[in-house]
Design a protein that fits this description.
Family (chain B): Belongs to the RRG8 family.
Radius of gyration of chain A: 18 Å
Function (chain B): Required for respiratory activity and maintenance and expression of the mitochondrial genome.
Subcellular location (chain B): Mitochondrion
Number of helices of chain B: 8
Pfam families (chain B): RRG8
Number of strands of chain B: 11
Helix content of chain A: 55-70%
Strand order of the largest sheet of chain B: 6-4-5-7
Structural class of chain B: alpha+beta
Oligomer: heterodimer
Largest interface: A-B, 64 and 64 residues
Protein name (chain A): WGS project CCBQ000000000 data, contig 00223
Chain lengths: 188, 282
């Protein structure tokens, strides 16, 4: 039952439904026509708008923001991919489609519609769980990084933790995530 | 007096004329307290998509069917702390350890720390990374992996000296137990396969192969030669170096050109076992 309805949202007793608009997704046309810089900033803004849906807790929101900043500004995805899956060929999906797919992943995780089929609801649940798990692992990794100044390069820049034999758990997690990325065409 | 008292009543002489009464209107709410109520409602936010068109625009309007995807299911499982690295990971990527009562064969010991092949409920369990190399290295001691719940009891006091910590249980024994379970599952699969119609390969199917020519153990591949170009997860079992499983995969079980095609929802246990053993032995 809707308690309060306004232009931007409908509030029920347990949830706030924010009405979707073009501010939240990128159309196929935009993917093809926008220039490189515009495309990057447009998608960055849209990813950041998802922050409100991630959690109510400030700490989780912050780790989502840290994750996004790292993803867009620092990470060398191709290097990481080469280290995680050394035997694989180059990625099948191009950069722009991958970014769009990742945004779709986020939208799936946080959205709901009356026309949703049962599979879409399962998708939504799984996507949300995967993202939350990813943020938890990321938070713990940041905790390790903050311990000493050398750790940033080790975990974030050269990905040495993927090749030495000290972080089996983290390595397997990264491998699985990379395989999921390969299968869905995303860049998480 | 008799005439004046009537003047005290309200005159209703004009009542008939004034039919169009003013209807009271509630003024439109302009207060940001209500128009921006979502800002301080303090509830979980959800993105609301209305209509089919918006679904199409937002994410193509189709389902990814992640319920059938092995990797998505592994990564979406609940988080547990890895006892060695102290980082939380999805439970399905880890090995569950439990304390099991020791019989008479070990005098003076109360319990044995045993890795579990299938996840079991109960609170006295701990988790570690799923890797053979981890247990092989000398730095890692099994004492750190004992479930912390053993210290919680007020009545029973179990110290580390009462627990059998045998690394063989985690390396060779675990591997052979896993192999036996996989072989059992495969034999059951073989019995079932007789009555089935030829399979069609769909997205997220798991294909088991046993080929020495292929270097990769786990691959995510798009099969372009098949109708619909499905994306499948190929698990190459050659790393296990087990001839009986090899002959099962290449012989009796083979139900497609690419190998043994399995559906996640039907053969979940076998797929999970094989996947975790491959990750374990790498």
């Amino acid at each position: 039952m809707v308690l309060i309805e306004s232009k931007r949202a409908a509030i029920t007793s347990s949830k706030i439904f924010i009405n979707a608009s073009h501010n939240f997704y990128i159309s196929q046309e935009q993917v093809q026509t926008l220039g490189d810089k515009e495309f990057l900033s447009a998608s960055y803004r849209r990813f950041f708008r998802m922050k409100q849906f991630v959690s109510k807790r400030q700490m989780v929101k912050d780790s989502y923001a840290t994750y996004l900043r790292y993803k867009f500004k620092i990470e060398d995805y191709e290097l990481k991919r080469k280290k995680v899956l050394p035997d694989c060929h180059s990625s099948a999906t191009d950069f722009r489609t991958a970014v769009r797919n990742s945004l779709q992943f986020m939208i799936r995780a946080f959205s709901f519609g009356d026309e949703y089929t049962a599979e879409m609801v399962t998708d939504s649940y799984k996507c949300k769980k995967i993202l939350k798990n990813l943020l938890t692992v990321d938070y713990h990794r940041n905790r390790l990084i903050n311990r000493s100044s050398k750790m940033y390069a080790y975990y974030r820049r050269d990905f040495k933790f993927l090749s030495d034999d000290r972080n089996y758990g983290l390595r397997q997690y990264e491998e699985n995530l990379m395989r999921l990325n390969e299968s869905l065409g995303t860049r998480l | 007096m008799s005439e004046n008292w009537r003047k005290l009543f309200v005159s209703r002489a004009n009542a008939g004329k004034n039919t169009s009464k003013k209807t009271l209107k509630v003024p439109e709410v302009r207060s940001p307290l209500l128009t921006n109520f979502h800002r301080w409602a303090g509830k979980e936010r959800v993105l609301k998509l209305t209509g089919k068109e918006q679904l199409d625009e937002a994410f193509g309007g189709n389902s990814w069917n992640l319920g059938n995807n092995l990797l998505a299911n592994m990564l979406a499982s609940p988080m547990r702390t890895d006892k060695v690295s102290r980082i939380k990971f999805p439970r399905d990527l880890l090995i569950q350890l439990k304390l099991v009562k020791t019989g008479d064969e070990k005098a003076g010991k109360l319990a044995t720390l045993v890795p579990q092949i299938d996840l079991r409920k109960g609170k006295t369990s701990s988790y570690v990374a799923n890797s053979l190399k981890l247990f092989g290295s000398k730095k890692v001691s099994l004492g750190n992996m004992v479930p912390s719940a053993v210290n919680d009891s007020n009545t029973v006091n179990i110290s580390l000296t009462d627990i059998v910590l045998n690394k063989d249980l985690f390396t060779e024994r675990y591997r052979t137990d896993m192999l036996r379970c996989i072989e059992d599952c495969m034999n059951q699969l073989h019995i079932r396969h007789y009555s089935e119609v030829p399979v069609t390969v769909e997205d997220w199917d798991v294909v088991l192969t046993y080929s020495r020519s292929n270097e990769n153990d786990i691959e995510v591949v798009r099969l372009k030669q098949l109708p619909g170009e499905p994306t499948v997860i190929i698990l190459n079992l050659k790393i296990l170096e087990n001839d009986s499983i090899g002959s099962l995969v290449n012989g009796k079980l083979k139900n497609h050109d690419t190998g043994v095609v399995l559906k996640f929802l039907k053969d979940e246990r076998l797929i999970r076992l094989v996947y975790s053993l491959l990750n374990f032995s790498k």
